[in-house]
Amino acid sequence: MHEILAVLRPLFFAALLLVPLEWLLPARGPDRRTRAGIVADILHATVGTLMIRFGAMLLLALIAPFDPLVHLSGTIPVWLQAIILLLVCDFIIWCVHRSFHASPFLWRFHRIHHSSPHLDWLATARVHPVEQIVFATAMALPMCIAAFSPAAVAIYMGFYTLHANLLHADTRLSFGPLDAVFTPPRVHHWHHADEVHAYDSNFGSQLVIWDKLFGTAYRPEAERPSRFGVEQAPPENFVDHLAAPFRAQPELRSDSGGAVAESAH
């Protein structure tokens, strides 16, 4: 019961905050999701999240050190620990995210997250458990190695969870001058664009610094992509999403007319 509440509680508060925001400051107007897409993402947000929590805990138990190498808790202020966590974890996320786009094998799993033809806060949860277990474990390792205080971890994870949902929200909200520091929704929307010129860009999660440093930032004048998703997307079905990476991958036509596997974008 505790695990179920741990999944449902943040989902409830995210809906309470972001549904009104999408209604008051919509980005795309009247287009709406299909019923099948809504059901699939609700299952991702509940059943899929439970799978991810158990998988990540198991993987961490196997690879994390038993004793922290560094004890930051109690040695530096909580606010500074939270900033360190933000910088370290965000860089790890950028590296892992970039890898899931660069590797055809890893793209099989990440492709599920990009398969939604409509972005909103609930689309945040559309992730394959295998992919998200890798992300969650990679993010948790610095917390285990450096023994951050529970308060610092709670601050960072709260900020990360809220911002992740906001990035996918169907909203034109801007952070104003802070857009130069923190990734706003419109920038991450371009990461999900099914448009060739936007491929392989905007991998940053919360901070924009990594995309700027590594030349993967993309901020066009247009406010919104013309379409989202991937070609030959799997059916809008939770079970199909789980199985899709283990099936034969779709083949698309190249410009020269030959059949090629879909590129990771």
UniProtKB/TrEMBL annotation:
Name a Pfam family for this protein: FA_hydroxylase
**For this UniProt entry, which segments traverse the membrane?**
6-25, 37-64, 76-96, 133-159
Topology term for the membrane: Multi-pass membrane protein
Keywords per UniProt: Lipid metabolism, Membrane, Oxidoreductase, Transmembrane, Transmembrane helix
Q: Which residues form the Fatty acid hydroxylase domain?
A: 83-216
> Where located?
Endomembrane system
State the name under which the record lists this protein. Sterol desaturase family protein
Q: Which InterPro entries match?
A: Fatty_acid_hydroxylase, Sterol_desaturase/TMEM195
Highest taxon of the lineage: Bacteria
Q: What is its EC number?
A: 1.-.-.-
PANTHER family linked to this entry? ALKYLGLYCEROL MONOOXYGENASE, STEROL DESATURASE-RELATED PROTEIN
Quote one Gene Ontology molecular function term.
oxidoreductase activity
